[in-house]
Amino acid sequence: MFQKKKINVRIKKEKDTHIISNILSNKSQSLTLKKPKWLKIRLPSNLKKINKIKNILKNYKLHSVCEEANCPNLSECFNQGTATFMILGSICTRKCPFCAVKKGRPLAIDLNEPKKIFQVTNKLNLKYVVLTAVSRDDLKDGGANHFAKCISELRKKKDTKIEILVPDFRGKEKIALNIFNRYPPDVFNHNIENVPRLYTEVRPGANYINSLNLLHQFKEICPSVPTKSGIMLGLGEEKKEIISVLEDLKSVGVSIVTIGQYMQPSKYHLSVKKYITPHEFKEFEKISLSLGFLKVFCGPLVRSSYHAEKQYI
């Protein structure tokens, strides 16, 4: 089990009202930062492919994290005929104040979802599929078995690689890992998201050490499967803290890392404290490579599943 010496991590449960009051307090004390020019996105002139993907997902009653999380890269990815499937519904049991995905009591699992994902994968002729999910703390296995069913179904398409971007399976890690040991993906991804000092604010209900342990333990049971993690910047973290997180990820066997800019989905979410410049991202890329990561993707619009197939090759 991973343990970091002298780490100052304080993760505690917060009441919803306390979290919201903190967010509102932070917003009232800070001016809204103007979005820099390097974050402005041009919409493609041809919307046919984008609408095609949206209609296919709608017809099959499937969700994409691209739409549910208001991803800034949606138009580019959909225009290229790719999407990241979000399984286990569209309602998350967590209330992370940076995330645009709906929160509340989830609906029943769609048992036909694995087959529908396989059908859409065939329809779009996808060679690389990313499966992510909302957190399902209400399920005994955190949703791991449903991930496995999707993986098993997609294995019927021999030329398709599968990446899973999983939640932390809080308290159910052993159950989930036993399942993934039997049904391993081609890439195992779990986002660390930010620095431990800000976890109470950014990821209430999550635990930095537990997330590192999840990555470490998966690597121990499936050493041949690459592990991957992502960090979002601009929430008040310091450079030395970011480097420390990168060192931790490397120490638990992570080989692929993504570093991108946090962007506020709405006025009700955490505000951006700083926009990281392309030059600063380039510096973090050099630092990450010097630490020994095999693949590093840094940039303002980089997301964990953005061009995921290129990250894998």
From TrEMBL:
Family, according to the entry, reads as follows: Belongs to the radical SAM superfamily. Lipoyl synthase family.
Give yes or no: UniProt keyword Metal-binding.
yes
The protein in question is named Lipoyl synthase
Which gene specifies this protein's sequence? lipA
* Superkingdom in the source lineage: Bacteria
SUPFAM superfamilies in UniProt: Radical SAM enzymes
Keywords, ordered alphabetically? 4Fe-4S, Cytoplasm, Iron, Iron-sulfur, Metal-binding, S-adenosyl-L-methionine, Transferase
Q: Where does [4Fe-4S] cluster 2 bind?
A: 92, 96, 99
